[in-house]
Amino acid sequence: MRKLYITTLLLLSSIGLTAQVTYEFSVSFVGINPNTNNYQMALLATPSESVTNNSTDDMGAGFYVPTGLTIGNFVTGNSNIPASEWASISMGPGAFGDAYFLGRDEAGQFSILLNGSGPFELVLFDVIADPNPSSGEIRFVENGDPVFDTIFIENYINIAAQNLYSQNNPLASAVSFQTLDMDTYISNRDISIYPNPVSNILHIKTAHSINAIEIYTLQGSLILKTTHSEINVNQFQSGTYILKVQTDLAQTVKKLIIK
């Protein structure tokens, strides 16, 4: 009987020590929305471990944008959460510009399930401006920021009616508009950048003369400048970056994913 008791106690202790899955938010530049010509961003959620049939409920995140800009034009991401279930709510001015809360109110008959290791695009959205901004940044509103008190909300993600939000990824919590700024674009037909995602050598092919190739973090820090069309990315941490290619014709900006 004593042996059975100890075995049961150890089993219960093991279950109690099992870590609960949580989700970390991040923001990523997607590209230019072809329908609006605005900068398009993605609100991402990455689970702490691979998930199976995680049932999504209500969720939301706060963002700062430069004063006078707005957020909207929602598009469904790879999570398949319908864009129609998202809304942008103004929270007024705050410490880092104008604050908006992007909230999802589940409205479908069937819950959207998350499977895999992510990251999951909860929703794609525009930073609405004309012209696109060349300075400032979009950044998360952190929980505890007084601007959240205006609508009594915070960053959260409900999975099966339980909030599993952990934090905003400190390495992907903002995107600098200065990094994205450009006067003209090179057509995708005139330049080839591959593979992307990349884990070893990045190749850049174009018929035009390359004046400069630059790689930036999402926060706007320049980490590489070169004119070589083949770049070894092993020196960089895995994550999302911004790639700028300047030629004698124009320049292009691409999202670069390093695995």
TrEMBL record:
Residues 1-19 form the signal peptide. It comes from the Bacteria. Keywords: Signal. Residues 193-258 form the Secretion system C-terminal sorting domain. NCBIfam families: Por_Secre_tail. This is Por secretion system C-terminal sorting domain-containing protein. It comes from Bizionia echini.
